[in-house]
Design goal:
The structure holds 2 protein chains of 2 kinds. Chain A is 82% helix and 0% strand. Chain A is mainly α. Chain A starts with a helix and ends in a 6-residue tail after the last helix. The C terminus of chain A is likely disordered. By secondary structure, chain B is mainly α. Chain B has a domain of 97 residues: Four Helix Bundle (Hemerythrin (Met), subunit A), CATH 1.20.120. Chain B is built from 5 helices and no strands. In chain B, helix 3 packs antiparallel against helix 4 and helix 4 runs antiparallel to helix 5. The mean pLDDT of chain B is 89. The chains are: A mainly alpha, B mainly alpha. At the A-B interface, helix 3 and helix 4 of A face helix 1, helix 2, helix 3, helix 4 and helix 5 of B.
């Protein structure tokens, strides 16, 4: 019985032909994968170079001095920009204080009792 | 690696120190503290409008003379405003009393503005023409817009 079934199965398998349709995107997808791998490699190389430059070149006196100069310039600029904003803020606050001292309506709005 | 980390730390410290020193030097002349903590607004006025000592003495005298008048206007306004508020809270229909209270508030408001403007023109007359013009611009903003922020654009 089993022998009979095996024969039928074998015949059936002999008649089975696989004929897959060609994938039109096959070549393109292969090249895409290759390109992605290469891109990944190039990023690794760039990162290695940056890493090496930061650890080896940057601590050298010439680069370190240049970095310090840039940081000092940025610090001074940021401080001046912030100070300008704060200066105007203080000026406005003082102006409001002064006007509240000479404007009876602002004085009234500032408190329920007039100042003595 | 140690050199790099040391450099990074050093740069951070130098950057922070630069910011701190520059900021405090720039702000040193801005914050006004009078010895007894009073009249900071007049000390500000002196610097903002570049008053000489002589101009400042005149402005200070005007300010001192105006202060009781201003306080009186403020008291009158609060009284009239309180009366109107009370009427509006208690009355459920129009009455001549409400009309009188509204008129009183409006009259006192106009008196306040007139009095302040008179004082402001006197003060501006003590300043140089350019500073006087700036000062009156600030007063105008206070009366028309209710705030002088337009004169200090970046602080808004």
């Amino acid at each position: 019985m089993n022998q009979d079934q095996d024969t039928k199965l074998r015949e059936l398998l002999h008649t089975w032909v696989v004929s897959p349709k060609p994938d039109p995107d096959f070549a393109a997808s292969v090249w895409r994968r290759i390109a992605a791998e290469q891109k990944e490699d190039s990023w690794t190389v760039i990162w290695q170079r940056v890493h090496e430059w930061l650890l080896v070149q940057l601590p050298k006196p010439a680069y370190a001095a240049a970095l310090l100069a840039v940081v000092v310039a940025l610090g001074a600029t940021a401080a001046n920009v912030r100070a300008n904003q704060m200066r105007d803020q203080y000026r406005l606050e003082h102006a409001r204080q002064y006007l509240a001292s000479i404007d009876p309506l602002a004085m009234a709005a500032g408190g329920s009792q007039p100042p003595r | 690696m140690r050199k790099f980390l040391f450099l990074l730390g050093f740069v951070a410290v130098v950057g922070a120190a630069t910011y701190f020193v520059c900021y405090h030097r720039a702000m040193a002349s801005v914050i006004i503290v009078t010895p007894d903590g009073t009249d900071a607004e007049l000390a500000w006025l002196k610097r903002e409008f570049a008053l000489s000592n002589e101009q400042y003495a005149k402005v200070e005298a005007l300010h001192e003379a105006y202060r009781p008048l201003c306080v009186g206007h403020c008291a009158n306004y609060l009284e009239a405003h309180g009366r109107l508020k009370q009427l509006l809270e208690t009355r459920t229909s129009w009455s001549p009393e409400i009309g009188e209270a509204v008129a009183a508030v409006a009259r006192i408001q106009s008196e306040c503005h007139a009095s302040m403007l008179e004082y402001a023109y006197d003060v501006a007359a003590c300043m140089s023409p350019e500073q006087g013009r700036r000062y009156l611009e600030m007063i105008k903003m206070q009366i028309i817009e209710g705030d002088p922020a337009g004169m200090f654009a970046s602080a808004r």
